Amino acid sequence: MFQPLLPLSGLPGWVMLNRTMDSQTAAFDASPEILRDTAYFEANIGAVKTAEDLVSDRRLLRVALGAFGLEDDIDNRFLIRKVLEEGVAKPEALANKLSDERYKQLSSAFGFGSVVFGARTGEEGFGAEITAKFRARSFEVAVGQQDESLRLAMNAARELAEIGNDDANDTTKWFRILGTPPLRSVFETAFGLPAGFGQLDIDRQLEVFREAARDKLGIGAVDDFADEALREKLVETYLLRDQIKAFAAQTPQSIALTLLQA
After folding, report:
1. With 80 as the cut, is the pLDDT of residue 143 above it?
2. What is the pLDDT of residues 178-215, one digit of tens each?
3. 21, 162 in Cβ contact below 8 A?
4. CATH T-level fold of 10-131
């Protein structure tokens, strides 16, 4: 598997990663493991008719979960089957009860629980749609194995581009941000929020996020994140605050060592 080249961390690392993104992602996507997984998924997903069919094939399931950042749930077959089977139309559906929005995205994408439209697995282009998401997420995972902060920055830039262009109302979009752990983490760090912030009432959390986005980023609505410059401003703020937090946590001895190495 191709390993991303990340000689720097923090904001300098982000700048360098973006400069080499096209060549690095091309090399990553061409690695044998990625090619095998995506080819298998595209060749076989059309024959999958039920959620049970999907969770019974570990290779298909790995790509499906990886496409939505849920790869750690590969062994939670019962949970994933229920999420897929129940869909998202009914308030009591499992995906709607889980706090992580990614389960809703997974269930909606596959459509097993949709009474009206049914499973999307047989649709032309569906396999390619999911494998494109899988490749993007897998590259982020590879980056995160070396630098988790850069992985979260990549995730935020990609997710906010999608959310900013979505047709949902502003409150729904903010709740999606609050309900997506990797994305939420970036905002909390960028806004300098305390560790116990998540214990507040959810409506109060929403209010704080809106206020901080307006005051610190000049963001009036989530739709503003459709602008690449504003997404970059958030990411840069996150990476700078993340570095400051990491530096503050170091002991005097480790700080001295860092300075000597620099």
Report:
1. yes
2. 999 999 999 999 999 998 898 999 999 999 999 999 99
3. no
4. AGR_C_984p-like (1.10.3700)
Please answer whether residues 154 and 147 qualify as being in contact, where contact means their C-beta atoms are separated by less than 8 angstroms: no
The answer to whether residues 179 and 100 touch, using CB atoms and an 8 Å cutoff, is yes
pTM confidence score: 0.89
Over the range 91-114, which residues count as b (16 or more CB within 10 Å of their CB) and which as e? Answer: eebbbbeeebbbbbbbbebbbbbe
Q: Which residues of 249-258 are buried (b: 16+ CB within 10 A; e: fewer)?
A: eeeeeeeeee
d(CA 65, CA 91): 23
C-beta of residue 204 within 8 angstroms of C-beta of residue 124? no
Give the mean pLDDT of 108-129. Answer: 94
pLDDT band at 262 (very low <50, low <70, confident <90, very high): very low
CA distance 163 to 254: 40
Neighbours of 151 (CB within 10 A): 20
What does the pLDDT look like over 65-83, one tens digit per residue? 999 999 999 999 999 999 9
Q: How does residue 115 score in pLDDT terms, banded at 50, 70 and 90?
A: confident
